[in-house]
Amino acid sequence: MSRTIILLGPPGVGKGTQGVRLADALGWERIVTGDLLRAARRQGSELGQRARRYMDAGELVPDEVVVGLVEEKVSRVPDETGIIFDGFPRTVAQAQALDGVLAEHDREVERIVLLEAPDEVLVKRLAGRRSCPECGAVYNVHFGPPEEEGTCDRCGHDLVHREDDRPETVRRRLDVYREETEPLVEFYDESPCEVVRVDGDRPVDEVQEAVRSAVAGDGGSGSP
Length: 224
Ligand code: AMP
Fold this sequence. Notes:
This protein is of the alpha/beta class. 47% of the residues lie in helices and 14% in strands.
């Protein structure tokens, strides 16, 4: 059975940065619901228009919308390729739906890598965050700028400062995370799959090393 892992954690903790590197290193596929929704918005599809008002307010898009996107995406991943979920699931209902979707493809969630960092760190990171709308790479003007300002190192596309990275919306997104998504930690703690906690408040390379050990199954919290 091919491997399937979930990167879980609050907005700004580094799921995107770490997920891109991990996927590049392992040759796995990333399924990132935030990116799928932003692409739907750019294409002006009905689904994208429906998602817009939730996203701009920092609220969650309804479960059936994101589950539909994930279902479609999973069915395109070759059987032998590993999958990293980033930003999904975000509610217990989504986690339950995911089990069903994966079972249809002879997969199951194997491990949760939970990235953690204090709120003040998250708020600061989101304020400086710049993202590539094309390939999903993430930079930070303070902590990890691109080689050429405003341009993606990986694909050369112009970088953007996301609308929902504004301070008011960031605070709402953190509240939504605590209310709706954090209960997933308990959900998965009580399930057969392993939850590995990784301290995300460290330099990107150190976190990546811990994430890789977590995925490889040889520890990886990096905490003393
Ligand atoms: P992200 O890029 O993961 O921070 O997602 C940006 C926004 O997209 C979120 O604030 C939500 O409005 C929406 N979104 C992304 N993933 C999900 C999900 N799994 N469930 C509901 N809404 C989502």
